[in-house]
Write a structure and sequence with these properties.
heterodimer, A: about 290 residues, mainly alpha, two-stranded antiparallel sheet, 11 helices, B: about 325 residues, two-stranded antiparallel ribbon, about 80% helix, about 5% strand, globular
Chain lengths: ~290, ~325
């Protein structure tokens, strides 16, 4: 096949931008699944919820979606701590998290989706902002701002989380709880409190990721399903709980997906993530930078 | 009750259901009952892997759709015979095709069973949560393949023309009644198999995996082989439920065949009924299935999905062992 050079370059650049965005989407799952061992498959549903909140406020009050998402951070944080509290009381404490906990999150995913359908309908929704539309040009490379801005915000979010986890006391406690819960208890710290905070942060990232999502593409309630596979593929490929691994895997997936969409058609793109996931699970379950 | 008696009881129950249905002779009843029976099969199939072994499968819809689409492929193949083959071969093939639905069911369950086996082989060496995620992944991969496969209609979907009546000798029955009878038989097969597994060595092996896989392996239980048996059986039953579906629905498209509602229902029904016994999925499917039929007709189809989701979340929190668990607990309390 004869591949036009500028098409190839642009596909790779688009993939890099997409990858940055995927990193933000995955950051939350990297915390909940990678560090806390909570298989929160409802995470994409919270992201879509974030998208719809950004949409609703943007359309009615004209506030920029990214600013909306920053305002929503505490709300999502609280929501996350509440969800974790229910999860802890009903499953973790009884030691039933594997089967019923999964079913719980699956139900949560489904309920969120159906409620969004009932409230907003199944039409695609989009937001309005100044940076949607124009793009920067460098020679043959196009940089659409609607991809560039989310990518930069995503990277900033990602860096903030990484700094928080490695530099602050609470962040280090989260790392500790992911390694040895009992040891944390012996240090007179409450692992449940730490996990609640961590899960809250994980859900809070969904507010930002949701706003970024609706900037990049129009959103309808069932879009979240595509992201379940993507998010877990990145998380597993990067190595559970490894933030740098997550970033690398997200960029890899973004580039491969963008190349697939450009050269084989967008209808094949969803399969890429899942192909990645299945191959990783089958051949290198520890992931790229796994412990 | 031993297995022979149980089978006889099942046949009697099925005959009673059939007699009532035939006496009522309302098409809507057949349509509604078919859906409920289909959910009994799906829930029972899910429970073989999910309830007995403790491995959550989110890809029920994929196995179901696989069964449905293998039927569609064979039906389309029948239409393409004349243009694909020289006359001699074509006239020979016309003796075999179109295949009767029971054959389609066997083929559908074999296809899904093989995929279930492959899926299990790839992922079951990993921890439970990975398996669950991998099943979700597989559902999307298969959906993408079907969407891009034009022969079975691609994303546009495929029309399957259902004959009005079926003639068996001089006897004529309406086609929907025929489908209903088939599904009734499949339901019996699924329930009898599930109950037999539960009381056999296989079932005890499954239970050891559910309770403590590591300990089971240390005691010499061949866990990988048992899990492969479970994924294969579970997949095959889901494919079996899906195979007659194109004839039932008349128009099959990937978005509906791979719909999340199949995955949610086949998890919610055993969870609500109770996962440890074959009665659980049966009770759950009948309750939830009838409630959904009622809600679809009286309120709306989006609300009925909301009911399923809320019931699933509510039951796993409040009654982790389902309705069966509640009943057992009550009788235990009364005894003491």
């Amino acid at each position: 096949m004869d591949i036009p050079f500028d098409l190839l370059i642009n596909a790779i650049v688009a993939g890099l931008l997409l990858g940055g965005f995927y990193a933000a989407v995955t950051a939350g799952v990297s915390i909940s699944f990678g560090m806390l061992d909570i298989v929160n498959i409802a995470h994409p549903a919270f992201i879509i919820l974030g998208s719809y909140i950004a949409y609703f406020i943007n359309i009615n009050f004209g506030i920029d979606p990214i600013i909306v998402s920053l305002i929503m951070l505490p709300v999502f944080f609280t929501l996350g701590t509440l969800v974790y509290h229910v999860y802890y009381l009903s499953f973790e404490r009884r030691g039933q998290e594997s089967l019923r906990g999964l079913a719980f999150f699956f139900g949560l995913l489904f309920v969120t989706e159906v409620v969004l359908i009932l409230v907003f309908g199944v039409d695609y929704r989009y937001v309005e902002a100044r940076y949607i539309g124009p793009s920067l040009h460098f020679g043959m490379i196009d940089l659409p701002l609607r991809m560039l801005v989310p990518c930069l915000v995503a990277l900033a979010l990602f860096a903030a989380i990484e700094l928080f986890i490695t530099r602050t006391f609470t962040g280090r406690a989260i790392m500790a709880v992911s390694q040895d819960q009992l040891a944390l208890q012996l240090m007179a710290a409450d692992p449940i409190r730490i996990k609640r905070i961590a899960f809250g942060i994980s859900i809070a990232t969904a507010a930002v990721a949701g706003a970024l999502l609706i900037i990049i593409q129009p959103v309808e309630p069932s879009v979240g399903r595509e992201y379940i596979g993507r998010v877990f593929a990145i998380c597993v490929l990067g190595g559970l709980g490894s933030m740098p691994g997550t970033l690398i895997a997200a960029v890899m997936l973004g580039v491969v997906e963008s190349l697939t969409a450009t050269f084989y058609g967008p209808s094949w793109a969803p399969a890429v993530a899942f192909g990645f996931l299945l191959l990783t699970l089958a051949f290198r379950p520890a992931g790229l930078l796994g412990r | 009750m031993n297995t022979t008696k149980f089978i006889l009881a099942m046949i009697a129950a099925a005959a009673a259901v059939l007699a009532i249905a035939h006496w009522l002779n309302v098409d809507y009843f057949f349509f509604a009952a078919y859906t409920i029976l289909q959910f009994i099969v799906l829930a029972t199939a899910w429970n073989i892997l999910g309830g007995y072994c403790g491995y959550v499968n989110f890809g029920s819809a994929a196995f179901f759709a696989l069964g449905a689409y293998s039927s569609v492929a064979l039906i389309k193949f029948d239409g393409a015979i004349d243009s694909w083959f020289p006359e001699g071969v074509a006239s020979f093939l016309h003796h075999i095709f179109p295949l009767p639905i029971p054959v389609l069911i066997v083929i559908g369950s074999v296809v899904s069973g093989v995929v279930g086996f492959g899926m299990g082989y790839l992922t079951l060496r990993l921890r439970g949560a990975f398996f669950a995620i991998a099943t979700l992944a597989m559902a999307v991969v298969l959906q993408t393949l079907v969407v891009n496969w034009d022969f079975v209609g691609g994303s546009r979907g495929a029309y399957i023309i259902r004959p009005d009546t079926l003639e068996v000798g001089s006897w004529q029955i309406s086609y929907i009644e025929y489908l209903f009878v088939l599904m009734l038989i499949l339901t019996m097969i699924a329930l009898v198999t599930a109950r037999t597994i539960e009381r056999s060595q296989l079932g005890f092996g499954f239970a050891t995996i559910r309770d403590d896989e590591l300990a089971a392996e240390a005691c010499g239980v061949p866990t990988l082989r048992l899990k492969l048996i479970a994924t294969t059986l579970s997949g095959a039953f889901m494919g079996m439920a899906g195979a007659p579906f194109p004839y039932y629905i008349g128009y099959l498209q990937p978005a509906s065949a791979f719909g999340l509602e199949y995955a949610v229902n086949s998890i919610a029904m055993p969870m609500i009924g109770g996962t440890t016994s074959w009665v659980g999925p049966l009770v759950g499917a009948i309750l939830l299935g009838s409630a959904q039929q009622y809600a679809t007709v009286t309120i709306s189809s989006a609300v009925n999905l909301l009911i399923v989701g809320l019931m699933l979340v509510g039951f796993v929190i409040i009654a982790p062992n389902g309705l069966i668990g509640l009943v057992q607990e009550r009788s235990r309390r009364r005894q003491s």
